[in-house]
Amino acid sequence: MYRHIAVAIDGGELSARAVSAGAQLAKSLGARLSLIWVAEPYAPQVLAIVPYPFVPVISDEEFGAQVDEIAARLFAEASATARAHGIDEVHCERATAVAPYKGLLEAAERLQADLLVMASHGRRGIGAMVLGSETQKVLTHSSIPVLVIR
After folding, report:
1. Can you name the residues that pair with 21 across neighbouring β-strands?
2. Which residue from 6, 45, 68, 73 lies 20 to 30 Å from 94 (Cα-Cα)?
3. Under a CB-based contact definition with an 8 Å cutoff, are residues 30 and 50 in contact?
4. d(CA 110, CA 106)
C-alpha cells in the first residue's frame, strides 16, 4: 500500500501524536519513514525611519545556528518516538519556506513519499478563518494522500 510515509513535525504535542501514528503505520506496512520540519527563512526586520533599540537584530550566522539547534532537537525527539514504535531508520528532512505548507509539500515530493501524516489543531469557524490552517492548505494542494491526526 504505502512504501514511504512522511510525517510533518513541529515539536508540539499533536506533532508527537502524528509521529507515533506515522511510525506505527510504517512499521505495520514495512514502509520507510521520513520526518519533515519546515523553518521560515531569515527575514531581519526592516525598521522605519526611527530605529527601535528594543528590537533585537541577529546576524544570518546566529539565526542559522539557532535554527540548526532547533532542528536537531526536534528531529532527535521525533526520531526517538519513531524508534520507540520499532522504526530503526528514520530520514530527517529540513525545508525552508515562507509558506510552511509549500515547504512541506515540496519536501514530501523530493522524498517521493506516497503518504503524508500531519497533525491538525481542529480549529473551526472564525478561528480557522482568521488563523488560517496549514493542514487545510496541505489538503487543498497535495497530490498525495494526507492522513490528519487530531
Report:
1. none
2. 45
3. no
4. 6
Cα dihedral across residues 101, 104, 110, 111: positive or negative: negative
Quick one: CA torsion of 90, 96, 99, 100, rounded to 10 degrees? 20
Q: Please, what is the Cα angle at 105 between 99 and 106, to 5 degrees?
A: 90
Per residue in 72-124, pLDDT (tens digit) is: 999 999 999 999 999 999 999 999 999 999 999 999 999 999 999 999 876 55
Q: C-alpha grid cell for residue 80?
A: 526517538
Unique residue bearing C-alpha cell 514511504: 4
Query: E strands along the chain, which residues?
Result: 4-8, 32-39, 90-96, 115-119, 146-149
- Name residue 38's amino acid: V
Residue 134: partners with Cβ closer than 8 Å, 6 or more residues away: 100, 101, 104
Distance CA 116, CA 148 (A): 8
Predicted structure pTM score: 0.87
User: What tens digit of pLDDT does each residue of 26-66 get?
Assistant: 999 999 999 999 999 988 765 555 555 666 678 889 999 99
